[in-house]
Design a protein that fits this description.
mainly beta, OB fold (Dihydrolipoamide Acetyltransferase, E2P)
Length: 118
């Protein structure tokens, strides 16, 4: 099993979906990366979104996973390909979360605005 460990900003409050035997806690995490474009000499910021699902016996995690908080996630990744309405092939990343850690720090106002725009 391959694990994916990353830190990012929670995009919206987590939601819970009850199944017969457990509860799926769903949340999306923005991973921000920046680099300097060698041709234009400008910094470029790229945001990748990862959909996360934590299977649990209670909804307690929903209270912890709030929009704007920084979270460390560790879990098994899966990827899917789809064609968007413009005919472009897109990739999505999902993670079946094994563990997570929420940090006290909230995203800055600039980070939140940029996440809303993506």
């Amino acid at each position: 099993m391959e694990n994916y460990t990353f830190t990012g900003i929670i995009g919206d409050d987590a939601t819970a979906v009850k199944t017969k035997n457990s509860i799926a806690i769903n949340f999306d995490v923005a991973i921000n990366k920046s680099y300097k474009n060698k041709e234009t000499n400008e910094y470029v910021k790229v945001t990748k979104w990862v959909h996360c699902t934590k299977w649990a016996q209670s909804e307690a995690a929903v209270l912890l996973l709030k929009k704007g908080l920084v979270v460390l996630v560790d879990g098994e990744p899966t990827s899917k390909h789809y064609v968007d309405s413009n005919g472009e092939v897109k990739d999505t990343i999902s993670v079946n979360v094994q563990r997570f850690e929420v940090f006290e720090r909230r995203a800055t106002q600039t980070e939140e605005v940029e996440n809303e725009n993506n």
